[in-house]
Amino acid sequence: MRILLIGATGKLGAAVHETLAGRGHEIITVGRGGGDLRLDISDPAQVTEAYDRAAERAGTLDAVVSAAGDTPFKPVAEMAAEDYAAGFRGKVLSQIELVRQGTARIAGRGSFTLITGVLSRDPVPTGSAAAMANGAVEAFVRAAALDIAPQRVNAVSPTVVTESLADYGDFFPGVKPVDLAQVAAAYVRSVEGGQTGQVYEPV
After folding, report:
1. pTM higher than the cut 0.90
2. Percent with pLDDT over 90 in the chain
3. Residue 154 burial by CB count (10 A; 0-12/13-18/19+): exposed, middle or buried?
4. Where are the domains of the chain?
5. Which class is 2-200 in CATH?
6. Prior bond to 44 cis, omega within 30?
7. Is residue 41 within 8 Å of residue 68, measured between CB atoms?
8. Which SUPFAM superfamilies match (predicted)?
């Protein structure tokens, strides 16, 4: 398959890239600071550019995979209205835009795989913006699946990954981590499988 991978330079994106490429897929990577295409998908115009340039490189895409989304972490009392707006733009609207524009740009039976996270179902202090964004993306996935068939859309919703415990473990006390390889396997399931409207929780 020809796959557009967003967020390919982060830990998760790199693991997903390695896993999908190892399974014989052709990957076009997108990132703000690196990748085949250096673009910011929080800007709808740059989403358009990503699809245009990917088509020039590879023709029709079979799948779009997102491993990127930014949200601020602060207590609610310290959050400004713009903090929530930034979290919504950075993780929700950016990924919705990938699907909205992508339905006309990928194969008729192609797929989208978005990223959410554990905070939509198991919140932590300072994580209200992330919980909001994750829940919104998951609701969108379930609804969009009804509209875009036979194209498919799913989300991967991991907890904290083992490889990032040094950086984020303090935010998730007592939470069992998951290895990056398990998260990447959930992406494989979404891309290569037949389900739609699912939220995969790697364990």
Report:
1. yes
2. 88
3. buried
4. 2-200
5. alpha beta
6. no
7. yes
8. NAD(P)-binding Rossmann-fold domains
